[in-house]
Amino acid sequence: MTNNQASVRIGRIDFTNVWPLFYYFPFSSFGSDLEVTQQVPSGLNRAMAEGRIDIGAISSFAYGENFDEYLVFPDMSVSAFGQVNSILLFHRKPLEELGDAKIALPTTSATSINLLKIILTKFYGLHPEYEYAAPELEPMMKNADAALLIGDHAIRASWEKNGYLVTDLATEWTRLTGQWMTFAVCTIRKQTVEQYPALVSRIYEAFLESKSKSLADPAALVRDAQKLIGGTEAYWQRYFSELCYEFGPKQWEGLSLYYQYAAELGFLKRNVPLQIWKDNSVVRVTE
Q: Which residue among 39, 163, 175, 272 is least enclosed by CB atoms within 10 Å?
């Protein structure tokens, strides 16, 4: 890349659940070729859609909204088959009794909000009232019957003895569908692939190396998570081991079903094909 060309801009979700993809990423070795910005998922989704970010671990739902502009890196995601521990609905009554409930939603999410709506609408036949609020459990519950929290906000709230019922949305999705759930995908703008194919390959390999090194020995991640968020060493060891950072055919199948339901219910305007980046030139498309 020459000096008069713009850097590739990478967006990073400001939650611990994506740490393995970035923790050992060798940013310094890329010099001025890369810029990095850190935001909550909703902010990163907007920046990607507006072309202010070129590569990002964005919400899966955000890919579905703008897939015409994007490709998805294989082998990288934030997924779960069953428990995810950081996408949690706190509620006063059982799920099946939330039909006339008021549910507070965080302003930080997209995939999880629509996952909740899919679960309640398609599988329980419920149409509660939804409202948005800052992601703090007790203020959310003052005027609501249930509250959805994601990421580090959900983790902190799960440690409190607040007396609420707690539903892990990934557990519920897998119970109802038998499928994986993918909450975030590493997405790249098609224009960036066309402009900087060699650099994109280097970035992809660096992500994979960071993921591999992080998961092979998560001790450093665990220590930093304890310092930043709190909690025990055992909690964070279990947390990082239960999350899945792969993105292959099993995860594609689960995410495609999520997109199918989202389109059926009108949360997405159309069906979403998964367009998978490969060697900067070959794209595998799954419906």
A: 163
CA distances from 229 to 27, 43, 222, 232, 238 (A): 24, 21, 10, 10, 15
CATH number reported for the structural domain that contains residue 249 in this entry: 3.40.190.10
Q: Can you tell me which residue has the tokens 């959310």? A: 140
Tokens 């994601």, located at residue:
150
157 and 91 in a common domain: yes
User: Are 199 and 280 part of one and the same domain?
Assistant: yes
Give the CA distances from residue 92 to residues 99, 147, 164, in Å, rounded to whole numbers and listed in that order. 13, 9, 6
Predicted confidence (pLDDT) at residue 5 exceeds the cutoff of 90: no
Tell me whether residue 190 is in a domain: yes
- pLDDT (tens digit per residue) in 36-78: 888 877 888 899 999 999 999 999 999 999 999 999 999 999 9
Report how far residue 257's alpha carbon sits from residue 247's, in angstroms, rounded to the nearest whole number: 15
- 13 CB burial (10 A radius; 0-12, 13-18, 19+): buried
Please tell me the pTM assigned to this model. 0.92
Residue 264 lies inside a defined structural domain of this protein: yes
Asked whether the beta carbons of 246 and 166 are under 8 A apart, the reply is: no
Q: How far apart are CA 257 and CA 263, in angstroms?
A: 10
Sign, CA torsion 115/118/120/124:
negative
Q: Is 230 left (phi over 0), alpha (psi -120 to 50) or beta?
A: left
Phi-psi region at 73: left, alpha or beta (left = phi > 0; alpha = psi -120 to 50): beta
In a domain, 269, yes or no: yes
Structural domain that includes position 152: 87-177
Residues 186 and 71 in one domain: yes
Strand partners for 185: 58, 77
Let me know if residue 238 belongs to a domain: no
